[in-house]
Specification:
Blueprint: H1 4-16, H2 26-43, H3 49-61, H4 66-71, H5 78-92, H6 98-109, H7 122-133, H8 137-150, H9 159-164, H10 174-180, H11 185-188, H12 192-223
C-alpha cells in the first residue's frame, strides 16, 4: 500500500497502541485489517474501489478509541468515541474528502458487537464482520484465555459454573466467554463471505471446548463440581 495518507494513518495507529497488550492490541487491529480486505475481495465488485478504500482505513482505525474505553472503566464506548476520533485523526493527517471521512467514521461507529447502531452499507458490514471474525476460531480461543488469565479466572470450569459465574471473577473463563457470546458470533455475521469464514472458525472452537470438557470431566466429577 503506497498511499501516503494510509502510511501516515498506519504510523498513528502504531503510536496509539504502543505498549498496549491484550486482546485489543495492535496485533488485533492488523488481523482485523487483513480479515476486512479478504472479505471485501469476496463481497465487492472489482470496480468498487472506493468501498475498498473506506474499508482499509476503517479497519485500521476501528479500535482507535479503545485505550480511552479501557482507562474509562466502562464509562466510554470506544465505538462511539472512535466515530469522532477516527475522523479527527484523518483530518489531522491531511484528509479533506468529507464523504470519505463520514463513511470511515460510520464504519468505526457501527463495528461493535453490542452496539446499538446497525451496520448498513457494504463497507460497514464488512468491517463489522472482520472484527467479529477475530473473536472466534484459534485466535479467538487464544484471546479468551489471555483475558481469563488477566482477570485471574480458572483455566476451565463446568457449564453451570460458567453460566452462573460473574464477569471479571474466578469463573470468567474462556469457556464462559464462548458460552455467553462467542458461539453466537457466526449467526450474527452480516455478509455471506464473513458468515462462511465464521462458521469454519466456530466449528473449530466448538471442537476445542468439546475436547476440553472431555479431558476435564472426570476431574470435575471427582471434585464434586459435576454430578
Amino acid at each position: 500500500m503506497n498511499d501516503e495518507l494510509f502510511q501516515r494513518v498506519l504510523q498513528r495507529v502504531r503510536a496509539i497502541f504502543s505498549g498496549v497488550r491484550g486482546g485489543h492490541d495492535l496485533d488485533h487491529t492488523m488481523r482485523v485489517y487483513v480479515n476486512a480486505c479478504k472479505i471485501a475481495e469476496m463481497e465487492l465488485p472489482a470496480e468498487d474501489l472506493e468501498s475498498r478504500r473506506i474499508i482499509r482505513y476503517a479497519a485500521l482505525l476501528h479500535d482507535c478509541a479503545r485505550p480511552e474505553e479501557d482507562s474509562g472503566k466502562g464509562n466510554v464506548c470506544h465505538a462511539a468515541l472512535g466515530r469522532i476520533k477516527s475522523v479527527k485523526i484523518l483530518r489531522e493527517l491531511g484528509c479533506t474528502d468529507e464523504a470519505f471521512l463520514h463513511a470511515v467514521g460510520e464504519c468505526v461507529g457501527k463495528h461493535r458487537y453490542r452496539g446499538k447502531d446497525t451496520p448498513e452499507t457494504p463497507a460497514e458490514k464488512i468491517v463489522y464482520d472482520a472484527d467479529k471474525l477475530d473473536s472466534i476460531g484459534a485466535v479467538g480461543i487464544a484471546r479468551t484465555f489471555h483475558f481469563a488469565s488477566h482477570v485471574g479466572a480458572r483455566i476451565h470450569n463446568t457449564e453451570k459454573q460458567a453460566l452462573e459465574g460473574a464477569e471479571y471473577g474466578p469463573e470468567d473463563t474462556g469457556y464462559r466467554e464462548y458460552l455467553v457470546k462467542l458461539r453466537n458470533v457466526p449467526g450474527r455475521m452480516l455478509t455471506a463471505s464473513g458468515k462462511a469464514l465464521a462458521v469454519q472458525r466456530g466449528e473449530f472452537m466448538k471442537s476445542f471446548f468439546d475436547e476440553l470438557n472431555a479431558e476435564t470431566e472426570e476431574v470435575f466429577r471427582f471434585t464434586g463440581e459435576l454430578s
